[in-house]
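Incident log, entry 3
Record: ABC-2 type transport system permease protein (264 residues)
Problem: checksum mismatch between cached and fresh output.
Input:
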Amino acid sequence: MTTLATPTRPALLGLRGFSTTYIRHDLRRVLRNRRAMIFTLVMPTVLYIVFGASQKFTGTIGHANTQAYVMVHMAVYGAILATTTNAASVALEQQAGWTRTLRLTRLSPAAYVVAKAAVAMSVAALPLILLSIVGAITGASAPVGVWTGSVVLGWLGSAVFAAFGLAMGSGLRSEAAMQASGGVLTVLAFAGDVFVPLRGTMLTVSQFTPMFGVNALANFPMTGGDTPYGDHISLWVAIANVVVWAAIMAGAAAFFFRRGTARQ
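Fresh output:
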């Protein structure tokens, strides 16, 4: 008598071949990349120290002082930088023929995307934790619950850019993908109200850019949507921005991964 195997939950969700062992292996590989880790951790911290901790701010924005406000912005940038650059490393895997090997296994494109996103999200927590420690030491101040809420929302929102990194890596299929993604993120940070507070028309335009929603959502527990210039950002605008760009980037990541591996 033949017994039919019961599909596992990941398989039922379309994640055929999903493996936590693969995630652990990939995470160890990422953490061994000292250059990438230093860039991901040091750059946002230096930006915070220069533009936040070293400045003699005395005002508050919502429930936080200005140092905490700047800290959250730079922590969000660091988390996004981590998720994007680590996910973009798929380009190197394609060059080495690793993704072609994976296509010969049971691992589906959706499971691969989820696994890479999980690794990127694990690494994204590091700059958030580091900036929180540095912020607490250098005078950033906000209620514990508010501070925690901002950090968690920034971490969750950075997942959107894991898909962006996958799309960049699969589309460009070269080491230049990681360099290009860094340049694109810098532009998006300026356009998305991350590096420099925007107002008026510039603030309105920024609401349609990819990084705006994640940054605004992370800052909401601290500021309630208020900006240093007295403008107000609706919570629903931030959520809509994140949802729309998440769908766009996830679709692009799956498309470019399938196209890239099919041509190998």
